[in-house]
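Hi X.,

You mentioned you wanted examples for the new student's onboarding notes, showing what a folding record looks like when two proteins sit in one file. Here is a clean example. The first protein comes first, with its sequence line followed by its structure tokens.
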Amino acid sequence: MNGRNYFSMLARYHRWAYGRLYERVNEIDDAKYFEDRNLFFRSIHGSLNHLLLVDRLWLARLRGEKTGKVDLGEELETDRQRLERSVFEQCDALIDFTDALDETRIDAGISYVSSKGESFTMPLAPLMAHIVNHGTHHRGQVSTALTQLGIEAPVMDIPYFLIEQR
């Protein structure tokens, strides 16, 4: 599998995993959804909002857009349905980005400014993998919160995604 196909697969997995998670998240009422669950970004809503913010931030960086300092806890969407739509729109944008990549671009570096205002140059490929890895990290936190609420955590492992893609 070449690099473009690999990252395209990861982007599609990222969207699929959000879909699996949202199937369970949508089983809970607003009170539980917005309640402080002692997650890093406090609530399920806060965690999903953070994921949207960071997915947008990294895609902008990969595209070479200026981002600068960012508050990683900023609430982009107050409404849970709008947040869900925005998460999937962002996933589609990442899929479009990865589908358009060529191997030269994958092997190139990018320069960006971190959320703290620090400048870095890093290879594009591991940063694309980071987007999915970061999503996995926080989706896991949301899964734990759901389990604590008595909701069965979704299966979001890549092998299950691959099985469904056959």
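Then the second protein repeats the pattern, sequence line and then tokens:
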Amino acid sequence: MRKSDILIAVHEGHGKTIRVKQGQSIQMAIKSAPRGSRIIVEAGEYKEQLTIKTNDITLIGESGAALVPPDLPVDNECTSFAGPNDDKTPSQAGICIAGAGLDLENFVSEHTRVKSVQRPVRGVKVSGFTVKGFSGFNILVIGAKDTEICGNKLLDSPKYGFLTAGSTNTKVLENEIGSTRPGFRLIGLCMDNFSKVKVVGNRISDYFIGLCIQTDGAEVEDNQVSDACFGAFLDPGVKHVRLRGNRITNALPNGCARFGAAAISVDGAIGARIENNLVQGWKTEDAQNITAGIVVVDDPCLSPSLSCEGLGIPAVARGNVVKGNTLRDNDLDIFVNATGSDNVFRRNRCATSNMDGICGSG
């Protein structure tokens, strides 16, 4: 098949605008596109996995453009990044944005960690797609810089809707991450960058953890999270997260008793600012457990987790500011069990806590 049979291209400066129609190959368009190209994908279902390793590629899905798993998986840099599937086959990503010269740790739990990257892929943008049902990640960004993921629907991945890891300055804006069918799903949106990540205006539902925050200095603002066991989880040792203006509602009914549940869990994190969030409807019907709105606790790091593996010591929650949040209709609004003496609680509009002076103080 000739390239001219697959792509319609118009030169724009040093890049191109490339249109892909249903029945044609998006991946072939990506491979042929020079730096700075725009690839516009028309409506239709495309059974492909996509790998982007070229700088400044903009991939745009027009309304109705959907990416679903192919009949035969294709291995790439993102294969097995979430470990094996339940049937022992490698996990796969729908869209894999990957730099060159990745040095990876061995998979332990959750996802693989990136040690270093020789040449980050830069300036990739993906918008407008429905990406559905990939076994590891619907979209995975590893070893990248200045990536923007905006206005996509990421549905029905059993492990991760989206992950950025070993990258710098990723922006995740106004995506919808959720499900169309019953079943357990692990993490909606996770950030494990070397530095800088901005997560704004996303809607996340039906995942065990809605927002998984493992990046120092992460900016997580104005997102909506519902129907989760943990709405936002700040991992042990993560520093200076800003979690502001998020709306986190409705714990999964009866689905979280084994693990507990909290809208916002500051789990051995340091120097976080938890401000002006709305937390509502975190209740459970399990008489043996309660569900909390905001939890600030130390983590002894006795059970296996990715962040605790990196720390190697217990994580003490310290220097966190919980301010101006509105909490209502929860089993318990705020729960604190941290040995750090400098966690601050001010002007939270709430009714119940396990310590005096937390609700409405300051």
